[in-house]
Amino acid sequence: MPENVSLKSGKTASLRRCLTLLLFALATNLIGVGQNNIPRFTASTELVQVSVIALDQEGRIAADLTKQDLKCLKMGSSKTSLNA
User: Fold this and answer.
1) Handedness of CA 55, 59, 61, 65 (dihedral sign)
2) Helices (H), 1-84
3) How many domains does the chain have?
4) ∠ CA 61-67-73, rounded to 5°
5) Residue 74 lies in a domain
6) Structural domain span for residue 68
7) Using an 8 Å Cβ cutoff, are 7 and 13 in contact?
8) Is residue 84 part of a domain?
């Protein structure tokens, strides 16, 4: 009879080890779920085209202006992306 008891406890220990390994594999697999997704974000742009006629102090067209001579303001804040 003692032989059956040790055999039974050996099977139980083996079953416990097998279940522990199975649970570990399942848990580590679930941790990695969703980590292969590429982060995404949305953005938008708005193109605003403005025609400008620049005049000097005497009312004549100022033809020799460069990009550095222009300033674009929107609600008081300066915008740096000017294409002149």
Assistant:
1) negative
2) 2-31
3) 1
4) 90
5) yes
6) 2-79
7) no
8) no
The one-letter amino acid code at 38 reads I
Residue type, 59: G
Strand intervals (E) in 1-84: 72-74, 77-79
* Cβ–Cβ under 8 Å, residues 54 and 65: yes
Predicted structure pTM score? 0.32
Selection from 59, 81, 63 nearest residue 72 by Cα: 81
- 46 close to 34: Cβ distance less than 8 angstroms: no
16-64 pLDDT per residue, tens = 888 888 888 887 776 666 566 677 889 998 887 878 888 888 999 988 8
Query: What CA–CA distance (Å, rounded) separates 9 from 17?
Result: 12
